[in-house]
Amino acid sequence: MSARLQGVFAPVLTPMEDRLAPATGKWIAFCKQLLAEGCTGLAPFGTTSEANSLGLEERMEMLDALVAAGVPAAQLMPGTGMCAFPDTVKLAAQAARLGCGGVLLLPPFYYKGVSDDGVFRAVAEVIERVGDARLRVYIYNIPPIAVVGYSLAVIERLLAAYPGVVVGMKDSSGDWSYQQSVLERFSGFDVFSGSERFLLANLRLGGVGTISAMANVIPAKIRFLYDNSLAENADQLQEQLDRYRAATRDYAAIAALKQILAERSGDPSWLNLRPPLVPLSAEAARELLARYAAA
Amino acid sequence: MSARLQGVFAPVLTPMEDRLAPATGKWIAFCKQLLAEGCTGLAPFGTTSEANSLGLEERMEMLDALVAAGVPAAQLMPGTGMCAFPDTVKLAAQAARLGCGGVLLLPPFYYKGVSDDGVFRAVAEVIERVGDARLRVYIYNIPPIAVVGYSLAVIERLLAAYPGVVVGMKDSSGDWSYQQSVLERFSGFDVFSGSERFLLANLRLGGVGTISAMANVIPAKIRFLYDNSLAENADQLQEQLDRYRAATRDYAAIAALKQILAERSGDPSWLNLRPPLVPLSAEAARELLARYAAA
What we know:
The structure is a homodimer.
Chain A: E1 7-10, H1 24-37, E2 41-42, H2 56-68, H3 85-98, E3 103-105, H4 116-130, E4 137-141, H5 143-146, H6 152-161, E5 166-171, H7 176-185, E6 190-193, H8 199-204, E7 209-211, H9 219-227, H10 234-248, H11 253-265, H12 282-293
Parallel strand pairs in A: 1-2, 1-7, 3-4, 4-5, 5-6, 6-7
Helix pairs in contact in A: 2-3, 3-4, 4-6, 9-10, 11-12
């Protein structure tokens, strides 16, 4: 079994060609760049990656290409949670086979008001059907978008049923009290904060790091706090990070991050987004870039 | 161009084998039975069909099999709206190629808080990429589950951009004032009520019928109201239908309908549901069946 994942992960933005196909070559180069700049690992196919606007085949081809291009699979935690478990099983099985350090598992998110038992069974079906001892599952809790989330009772049941397989989570609830409850209640369960704004608090309670959209644009700064979380000035480092978030938080998150990358790289194709997402207006883009530059 | 769709459609329940694969043979027989019992058409792969727990390949194979088995494609309005437009395009193109009377199009439903412009572009991309003159799109508005819906402004824009292609909708908002607004504002736009409880009101304002989960269990009764909406006793007929809904509404809808079919057919495999859905408890099942029998 490989070392467990920790540190700073980027849910990698997905560059798109003008016809909105994934720009896989550019994406692989961006993945390598993020690792070079400070990410300890990558979570491709996250919410920020527009993964839920990518089809199963697209994701499978991209993941194969990424590993074939030499990005170490052990540092990857691809998002594999789709609405239909046969699709989730295919993608998670591929990730395990490639040696990915883990998979990030959204619950099925179409049907609402589902029971804890239903969420448990959804995860259990995937684990049983993948049937690969290499599979490591990180559950992905993001009720602000998926609406369906993971309750503490579900986590407890998963840990009892699948010890050593369900090993951690990404919490993007935005609710620190929830994340704190998970950190305090389940020892040995590796909690990544879904936002770098809770990174220091997460580490101080035994969390293992962050999978943060902002790591697409400021990986080195987030990594610096991660590496210096015990330093005297750690709170100041956290405050510095918070300024970047404050500069972007009034804008649609994925469009804003792509805008920053387009500006930085001089490559306007970074502005391409799959519907239902749309680019920022010209005015919002100017405002965002000015605020970001001043952060 | 074939006659436009109207009447009573069932979003067909999907029977599953014990290992949760679609029981395609049983499903085809059930589809034929529903048409024989009074449905004017079928909307396979709706919410009630657990379609969002079915993978793309599964849906494509089932649709091919259904038409190959002799169910008239012109009477079909399969659900084709998935999160990722390449998947939606594949399924909608197949439906058009097979000669389906229409496709029922959910908006992409993962990302929340999306703009009208984003929803419009999502539909536009599908229509443009399918690129088949036979395609007829019915938009599917179901914000209680999909969260993302279709505003009046989006409908207006779609009708202006794609006249004769975007031809109608299924409204499962549960919000009669919304449905009334659509009926009053857009003439020649074929509105199906997503619930038979609004069937009479829908027809009286120029709507074309209902695509109703209850049509899986009482197709003849709903059809009778549809055929007699101008009769003196139409309100009483509507009240009769409402009693069946009242008998089931306190239970998880899809589980409840499958419970009724299991009871009626003597085939317990009708109880199989894909996670995150789960069967009713034994106690709830008993209670439901008693209330339904007394309706």
